Amino acid sequence: MTEASSVLVTGGAGFIGSNLVDRLVREGYRVGILDDFSTGEISNINTDDIEKGRVQLHRGDITDSQFVRAVVKDYEAIYHEAALPSVARSIEDPILVNNVNVTGTLNLLKAAVDLKVKKVVYASSSSVYGESVKLPKVETMASVPVSPYGASKLAAENYCRVFAKVYGLQTVCLRYFNVYGPRQKYGHYSGVIPIFITRLVNDFPPVIFGDGEQLRDFTFVQDVVEANILALRRDVNAGEVLNIASGGTTSINELAALLAKLMGKPQILPEHAAERPGDIRASHADISRARAVLGYEPKFAPAQGLPTVIKWFSPDRALMANEPDQA
Predict the structure, then answer these.
(1) CATH class, 6-179+220-244 region
(2) 34-89 pLDDT, tens per residue?
(3) Is 167 a catalytic residue?
(4) Which residue, 23, 64, 91, 312, is CA-closest to 193?
(5) Catalytic residue among 149, 180, 186, 296
(6) Considering the entire predicted model, what is its pTM?
(7) Domain extents for the chain?
(8) Hey, what CATH topology would domain 181-216+248-287+299-312 get?
């Protein structure tokens, strides 16, 4: 594949998408952002990049197929980061999550085929594996999601594979594992790290669902961005699926203790609450295929990545709502 010079990032105002946009701009790509700002933030976008034409903003919804086609026609490659990413939200409203995560992806893939896009890199999730006993998780093992969110990401993956096989579209699916970093939003549907940091900033104890021995493969956002850049530039088999992670594990108890130590509040001990439906006991990725196919090599363990996130959560960003959130 001849490398693309113009790249569209769906969800480019979101946490991962905006970090990817920044890197693409630095690398000299002409970048478009497609976002409806339902979860993304305008503050995540460098206004100077927009004013100087390095980034073009397309405000709209990926479930609107005509809008998607009108945007896609101007770009050679697509990073598909747009999604409703919460397990809890998918349990509350599975139809909405399906519309965004599955129908939105199908709209994008159809437009990509019709308009001859060179490559689509899809942001998938470790949630597609479900509660597998075997660890670490390998791309060839069975995918049995335990939440509507996981089911929606697997369905979108399957569409990517089918479009590669039937239409010859160059697709790559990157299965992200527990991504964290600056710009990750705090709120009811947040990941555990921004919630724990926000509670500690406000001198509340982190709240852990279950015994805290759940294992997670926390992956710093800059490692994810690097994997995306490699996926665009490398010749990869159409329909390829790759785990993107740190390749190590941290328990939720260890995470709470590490954050408290890094924030100078080791005396604040976590509290425990009942387990939540849809939560996975253990998540740990085998990243040997990403190493072999992409040359991917993660650089950040939690001890290296978390200080940057803590610094980003200024007291203003860490203001809590009236009722404390849990994670």
Answers:
(1) alpha beta
(2) 999 999 999 999 999 999 999 999 999 999 999 999 999 999 999 999 999 888 89
(3) no
(4) 312
(5) 149
(6) 0.93
(7) 6-179+220-244, 181-216+248-287+299-312
(8) UDP-galactose 4-epimerase; domain 1 (3.90.25)
